[in-house]
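Structure ticket #2291
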Amino acid sequence: MARWIGFIITLGLGATLGLLYGWVIDPIKYVNTAPETLRIDYKSDYVLMVAEVYKAESDLPTAVGRLTLLGESNPTEIVHRAILFAEEQNYADADLALMRTLENDLQAWYPLGEDNP
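Resolution: structure written out below.
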């Protein structure tokens, strides 16, 4: 029985020291990561920012270039997924309208399913 107690204590101590080292002493530092690695909430915020700039500039090719930084093949699909997430998270109506305008203009420029221009 003493062997099992020693084993369990050693196992707990090892796990504790491992977590302490990995989380406190030498945690992973992400530097210069690609935008495509963002979570969906950050991607949606990025799409909203692109939509705001697009409203001011009315430059669709530049907006497409900014959206392709997210690493997905079709900017229309990127915007569509961002809108779905924004609706789930109850973004402001004005923000959703900006994103929908961008999506509509992208669909007019090239339909969903086609490759990038």
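Closing remark: The chain has a mean pLDDT of 88.
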